[in-house]
């Protein structure tokens, strides 16, 4: 069981945890009681203990709460969420948790929400500058609709995380184009394979198979891509070291 007065020092990708439990709950849109309950269930890592034995939380805790929220939105019970989180690597950082949330969100049909600017800032977890909103729009995460914003709820947190990546706007857009092109090609080929496999079946069987296969295929693509990217980066750094 974890409490606010025990546990190892938190890891927050170079950023010291600075939120009190009340501030964390307010940022995540949950109650303090919920945060404490998740902590006792092991769904959240323990806080960092500061002066006067006060627990402090950081971005990793916010990312985990967002992932839990998405899992609940998909209809998972608390026991199922506990099993899901228990299968994840224990050292996942903020960006990896955001990717996991994006994967989970992809299990459901695409959903958009229309928000005011104040609501957009609250959902993003921080005030967004006009330039940052424009970058989110370029990533197709946000679209201006008069005085409001149509937001892809499943991609918002991941898009906000990308705002902090030290890459130029042009590089991020080029990367998005590359990922879109290759993912569409993979989706087309996988769709063809599934169509061939179920060509003789009833249309209802096809829809049922598609619903069951989608989360498995998305997770498989994510895992394969992560491994391939890791290998490419390792080869790149090895070549650089030799040169």
Short description:
The protein is mainly alpha-helical and 243 residues long.
Descriptive notes:
This protein has 243 residues and is mainly α. It has 3 domains: 69 residues, Orthogonal Bundle (Multidrug-efflux Transporter Regulator, Chain: A, Domain 2); 58 residues, no CATH class; 76 residues. Helix content is 60%, strand content 7%. It is built from 10 helices and 5 strands; from the N terminus they run ααββαααβααββααα. The strands form 2 sheets. A 3-stranded antiparallel beta sheet has the order 3-5-4. Strands 1-2 form a two-stranded antiparallel sheet. A hairpin with a 2-residue loop joins strand 4 and strand 5. Helix 1 crosses helix 2 and helix 3 runs parallel beside helix 5. The longest helix has 40 residues. The termini are far apart.
Strand order of the largest sheet: 3-5-4
Please give the number of β-strands: 5
Low-confidence stretches: 1-14
Largest β sheet strand count, sense and barrel closure: 3 strands, antiparallel
Number of domains: 3
Cα shape: globular
- Mean pLDDT across the residues is 77
- Give me the strand/helix succession: HHEEHHHEHHEEHHH
Helical amount: 55-70%
Number of helices: 10
| Percentage of β-strand residues | 5-15%
Distance N terminus to C terminus?
A: 50 Å
Alpha carbon gyration radius: 20 Å
- Class by helix and strand content? mainly alpha
């Amino acid at each position: 069981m974890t409490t606010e007065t025990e546990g190892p020092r938190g890891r927050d990708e170079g950023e010291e945890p600075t939120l009190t439990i009340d501030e964390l709950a307010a940022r995540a849109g949950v109650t303090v009681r919920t945060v404490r309950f998740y902590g006792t269930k092991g769904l959240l890592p323990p806080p960092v203990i500061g002066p006067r034995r006060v627990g402090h939380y950081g971005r990793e805790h916010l990312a985990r709460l967002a992932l839990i929220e998405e899992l609940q939105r998909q209809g998972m019970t608390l026991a199922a969420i506990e099993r899901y989180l228990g299968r994840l690597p224990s050292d996942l950082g903020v960006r990896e948790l955001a990717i996991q949330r994006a994967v989970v969100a992809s299990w459901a049909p695409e959903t958009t929400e229309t928000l005011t600017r104040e609501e957009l800032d609250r959902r993003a977890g921080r005030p967004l500058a006009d330039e940052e909103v424009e970058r989110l729009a370029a990533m197709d995460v946000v679209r201006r609709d008069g005085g409001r914003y149509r937001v892809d709820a499943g991609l918002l947190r991941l898009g906000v995380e990308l705002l902090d990546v030290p890459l130029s706007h042009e590089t991020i857009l080029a990367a998005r184009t590359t990922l879109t092109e290759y993912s569409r090609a993979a989706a087309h080929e996988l769709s063809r394979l599934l169509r061939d496999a179920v060509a003789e079946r009833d249309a209802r069987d096809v829809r049922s198979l598609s619903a069951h296969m989608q989360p498995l295929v998305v997770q498989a693509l994510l895992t394969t891509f992560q491994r391939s990217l890791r290998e490419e980066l390792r080869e790149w750094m090895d070549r650089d070291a030799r040169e």
